[in-house]
Amino acid sequence: MSRRLGSGKLVIATHNAGKLKEIGKLLEPYGMACISAGALGLPEPPETGTTFVENALIKARAAAEASGLPALADDSGLSVTALDGRPGVYTADWAERQHFEGAPGRDWFMAMGKVEGMLQAVGPDAPRDCWFSCVLAIAWPDGKYAVYEGRSDGSLTWPPRGTLGFGYDPVFVPEGREQTFAEMDPKEKHAISHRAYAFAKLVADQFSAA
Length: 210
What we know:
By secondary structure, this protein is of the alpha/beta class. It is built from 5 helices and 6 strands. It has a 6-stranded mixed beta sheet with strand order 2-1-3-4-5-6. Helix 1 links the parallel strand 1 and strand 2. Helix 4 packs across helix 5. The protein is globular and about 50 Å long.
């Protein structure tokens, strides 16, 4: 059995308010006092990994070392079958605005449009199936770590629908559903999302009875 989280503070290694809120809701029942890396003023480390696991560990380890507390990092992304699995680990990069496009930051509508434009370039019969991946990594200041993975399959729709999610949620219709993630009640999304599946593994390992 891997090391377990004790009671107390857990750093969520993110500066993304939507991701912090979603992770905080999932951890709420387990009594963890979550604080974001952004709130602690921790810098965002360069995500130089080529897989979700590598990038999640980079973020978790950096936050744990800088804070002296256990840290949880999420690395997630959208992979599209017709685009050979892209954007994948570069999901967030596709949303980055260039300086000539205005203030630096992320424009998710632009990112969704880029995916749609590339799909249309493939052709009218391009498959629209895709999946969200999520890797959760917990790192402790002494170097120990644990990793949990989850996946949610679905298809892409256009134009974007809904205002309740973040990132690519407005164009992702999970398998067996008609609503996008961004149209769903957050509780419904949390029950079937890639992040929820990864969290189920985390909870079973970290919080289940010994």
